[in-house]
Specification:
The structure is a homodimer. Chain A contains seven helices and nine strands; from the N terminus they run βαβββαββαβαβααβα. The first copy, chain A, has about 190 residues and is α/β, with parallel strands linked by helices. Chains A, B: Essential for recycling GMP and indirectly, cGMP.
């Protein structure tokens, strides 16, 4: 049996990673979704191993020390990370796994897992991205300007990725990502 | 405008290159098909530039000398070849072009045009290939054995290609080739 693939889907905040990932679930049903580890408390209805792997602070620090995470970051006082184990188990069983992650995290994953397929989701244009960020209607002008400047810096990291997919329409973007997965399985000398 | 791609579809005789190519015409309508040059006489209804580029023997020799062909071969007293010009014009116009060709020819094209995408069409199994060759019902046992041995030698050249596509069902094979084309267009640092 041949190994599965790790597909890392990344891109600037506001580009629609989450929406595209949800749509991919429908389109490519036999794709596994990477489950993150976290130190934050489970919310009502959240299950260990489904929504997150919930760990204590000490357990998380031990996982970092033992190199059990492909990347990790701190966010509002809690740790979040990608367990290497879950990814490796899935691909060793011959199943593909997709990881949706922001740009800096994806580049850290690439250091530890260079055989992954790194896909960068692009907005159709910077104007369109600005519209999407503004469209949420919750941000001040200063915040929007800051997020746009971060997005531009992130798009400049495109060259570290394998594929660029423009998120012009969700269906088209999903078809391109599905095509990338099919093509990668046909590759000789991966 | 970005350049088009040259997709070279190859594989052993009997694997179904022609059938898959015809089905692709329906599935991917904006794909151009490479037109061969030949010294053989046009048959009734054949048009220059549509079915073949028809050339005199002298013209063909001059095209070889001037490196105007990506590959050429002699077959029952006539020359056949792939005009470089037609391929380059098409991809410079931003359109993809597909070339259906036997294995040795494909490897010659690769020498002159390494930026092409080389796709090897595989039978689901060697037994299945034998069935397909026998199924034509026109060959002696010795011919079938010879063709099977050539096919095995050709399949051993797989490593020189970029992608392997199993022709289990025409629709699936076409979807894989279409996916390869879409994915190649998404590639960063081609």
């Amino acid at each position: 049996m041949s190994k599965g693939l790790l597909i890392v889907l990344s891109g600037p905040s506001g580009v629609g990673k989450g929406t595209v990932c949800s749509a991919l679930r429908q389109r490519v049903p036999n794709l596994t979704y990477s489950v993150s580890a976290t130190t934050r408390q489970p919310r009502l209805g959240e299950e260990h191993g489904v929504n997150y792997f919930f760990h204590s602070h000490d357990e998380f620090l031990r996982m970092i020390a033992e190199d059990q995470l492909l990347e990790h970051a701190e966010y509002v006082g809690n740790y979040y990370g990608t367990p290497r184990n879950f990814v490796e188990k899935t691909i060793n069983e011959g199943r593909d796994i997709i990881l949706e992650i922001e740009v800096q995290g994806a580049l850290k994953v690439k250091e530890k897992f260079p055989e992954g397929i790194f896909v960068f989701l692009l907005p159709p244009s910077l104007d369109e991205l600005k519209d999407r960020i503004q469209g949420r209607g919750t941000e001040s002008q200063a915040t929007i300007d800051h997020r746009m400047s971060v997005a531009v810096d992130e798009i400049n990291l495109l060259e570290h990725y394998d594929y660029a997919v423009v998120n012009d329409e969700i269906d088209s973007a999903c078809k391109r990502i599905e095509s990338i997965i099919i093509a990668e399985h046909c590759k000789i000398n991966k």
